[in-house]
Automatic annotation (TrEMBL):
<protein>
    <submittedName>
        <fullName>Carbonic anhydrase/acetyltransferase-like protein (Isoleucine patch superfamily)</fullName>
    </submittedName>
</protein>
<dbReference type="InterPro" id="IPR001451">
    <property type="entry name" value="Hexapep"/>
</dbReference>
<dbReference type="Pfam" id="PF14602">
    <property type="entry name" value="Hexapep_2"/>
</dbReference>
<dbReference type="InterPro" id="IPR047324">
    <property type="entry name" value="LbH_gamma_CA-like"/>
</dbReference>
<dbReference type="InterPro" id="IPR011004">
    <property type="entry name" value="Trimer_LpxA-like_sf"/>
</dbReference>
<dbReference type="InterPro" id="IPR050484">
    <property type="entry name" value="Transf_Hexapept/Carb_Anhydrase"/>
</dbReference>
Length: 321
């Protein structure tokens, strides 16, 4: 397949269209719903990054673009020769031009358009300047002094379905209890005092740790997406109520999450906090320890604050499993 390399611990779900010399690194997850991910020649997706394409928001990546560690890309279009720092999040409908540089931890909001040759930082992202000649030389040097672009030669890599069940670990006298209708991806790991309810889905690379610190209770119809971690401090509990959706690369620690809540990609929820029913936590937000929010809140920021109210019941996002 024209020197395409997928690391052994990477996960491919659905149909991926790749050019020549594409590299997908360890722990990276690419999930393509309805044939919705295309990656150009000589592009790289580094460790523990997550790329999710959907029918309404496909992912299109140009050639010689490099994603750093733990990036999250959902339904974005990215041009050629981009340098994307560690921990960058790009949200549905965002469009990135050619030869752009992104600082670490940058969040690109939904529908944002970034012009060619931009330097971009911030949460949310801001274009702070155009590329200098030094910037362009760095991009060229990082690509072996060759920024020429070849014609895209498509290779199709397809994996049908997802394999159930993940790895379950005993901790002392506690062992995870999984409902028969629940789905646990084969690369997920659950440890100790964990209960997963009916029809819930745990994505690839997820770690849920219910060790001696306390119980983890996951309700019905819950989605916990790729490379998310659930854990808790001592003398605490972690309760995820029914119909909750947790996006990729989140950290959820010792909290109570009310039913029908949506926690978007890359968010951090800290111990002893509480989220009311039908809450929306926007991408990259931090809910501090011991924070409590009522029902129907929209939370955003680092730390998170309420920026408004949901006027109706939250719909399941299209990026869920």
């Amino acid at each position: 397949m024209d020197n395409i390399k997928f690391a052994e611990s990477s996960v491919i779900i659905g149909k991926i269209r790749c050019g020549e010399n594409v590299y997908i690194s360890q722990g990276a997850v690419l999930r393509s719903k309805d044939d919705s991910i295309s990656i150009g020649n000589s592009s790289m997706v580094l460790e523990n990054s997550v790329i999710i394409g959907t029918k309404d928001n496909p992912v299109k990546v140009g050639s010689k673009t490099v994603f750093g560690h733990k990036c999250v890309i959902i339904g974005a279009e990215i041009g050629n020769l981009c340098e994307i720092g560690n921990g960058v999040t790009m949200l549905p409908g965002s469009k990135i031009g050619n030869m752009c540089i992104f600082g670490e931890g940058t969040i690109i909001p939904k529908g944002t358009v970034i012009p060619d040759e931009s330097v971009v930082v911030g949460r949310p992202a801001k274009v702070i300047r155009k590329l200098t000649e030094d910037d362009k030389n760095m991009i060229k040097r990082m690509r072996g002094n060759d920024i020429s672009l070849k014609e895209f030669k498509e290779n199709i890599f397809e994996k049908e379905g997802e394999v159930n069940m993940g790895t379950l670990h005993r901790f002392k006298d506690k062992y995870p209890s999984i409902a028969d209708s629940a789905f646990i991806h084969q690369s997920a790991e659950l440890t100790g005092d964990v209960i997963v309810g009916e029809n819930s889905k745990i994505g690839s690379g997820v770690k849920i740790i219910g060790d001696s610190h306390g119980p983890v209770r996951i309700g019905k119809n819950v989605n916990i997406l790729e490379n998310t971690v659930l854990h808790l401090l001592p003398d605490n509990q972690l309760i995820i109520e029914d119909n909750v959706s947790i996006g990729p690369s989140c950290i959820v620690h010792g909290t109570v999450v009310g039913e029908n809540t949506v926690i978007e990609a890359g968010s951090i929820i800290c111990d002893y906090s509480k989220l009311g029913k039908n809450t929306l936590v926007k991408s990259g937000s931090l809910v501090k320890q011991r924070s409590e929010f009522g029902e129907n809140e929209i939370l955003e920021g680092f730390p998170a604050k309420s920026i408004g109210k949901n006027e109706s019941k939250m719909e399941k996002p299209d990026w869920i499993l």
